[in-house]
From TrEMBL:
Domain Aminotransferase class V: 2-360
InterPro entries given in the database record: Aminotrans_V_dom, Cysteine_dSase, PyrdxlP-dep_Trfase, PyrdxlP-dep_Trfase_major, PyrdxlP-dep_Trfase_small
UniProt entry tagged with the keyword rRNA processing: no
Species of provenance: Flavonifractor plautii 1_3_50AFAA
Record Pfam families: Aminotran_5
Keywords assigned: Pyridoxal phosphate
Needed co-factor(s): pyridoxal 5'-phosphate
Signal peptide extent: none
Protein name (Swiss-Prot/TrEMBL): Aminotransferase class V domain-containing protein
Molecular function in Gene Ontology: catalytic activity
Amino acid sequence: MIYLDYSANTPVDPAVLEAFCKAEQTYIGNPNSTHCAGRTACEEMARVTDHIAGLLGVEPAGIIYTSGASESNNLAIKGIAQASRSTGRHMISTVLEHASVGGTLTALQQQGWEVDLLDIQRDGTIDLEQLGDLLRKDTILVSVCAVDSELGTVQPIRQITEILKDFPNCRLHVDATQAIGKTELVMDGVDTMSIAPHKFYGLNGSGLLLKKSSVIIEPQIHGGSSTTLYRSGTPALALAVSIEKALQLTLTQQEERIRCVRQLNEYLKTALLHYPSVRINSPEGAVPHILNLSVQGLKGTVFQRVLSERGVCVSVKSACSAEGTPSKAVFAVSGDRKNALSSWRVSLSHLTTREELDEFLQVFDQCYKELVP
């Protein structure tokens, strides 16, 4: 098998799994319990939270443990909307967002909130001038992904925060699911941020929502003590330990890993562009981990299926998107619906080898010759 879908899920790092298992076996008490085993677990939970806060440059009180980015996005967007409903009911987002953001916004629309979607420019970034035009006194939220999962586009978060300085009642939520370990993480001016460890060699079923101390959100899960007022439930200490380890490894090795992936990306892109029907959709400036392409005249689902039959794993759109529809991201940058239907994504890792890419290119060549008229 050749796995080229690291933006959907990454294998857990052995050191992360080891840290999880060790914590699970060592700290048997409930961190909420007042006996000695509970106090020991509570102290370890506080240590882990402090360390994660230090790694990310945030306050420990602003760390909310969740089950993953989908819950984090729901908690941030619904929590901000409900806490700010007396201020306004207008929100701004983009077509590039993950389904957990888009679905949450749709649910809020049905409850009376108003949502505007920003245009996407040819380079995959949002239209900053349009953002300024759309902002109103009753705008309470802007939600933008740091890195688009289909194209790899890095959004101009710093410029967005500058624009929002003139709108003190508007919060900025950033879905950083695809950003950790792939690009610089912008925290200044961001009110809430979602993080998914399974995207950077952590464990599925764990997540983080980072929240500024000044930001008020309404909880979506009530009842029971936890590490925070904003998300009830027994603290999952071992999962927190696994997040700590995954973050530490990813951030300390980030530059080296990016350099490795960039070389792989250039090698693959150069080889693919020799095929006349291949079109690269990822814009310049995208993170090197994501390479979106189209084979003109062939639906992406067809090419993906044929590759999968031969042991190659790539994706069409994000893993959480509806099947049989064109990629919104690719359509936004190309304006070509057929091209958007033909698109699919290769996502790379520092674990990807040149030998794997050579084998993929051999399989791709066979499929191309069989399928392209």
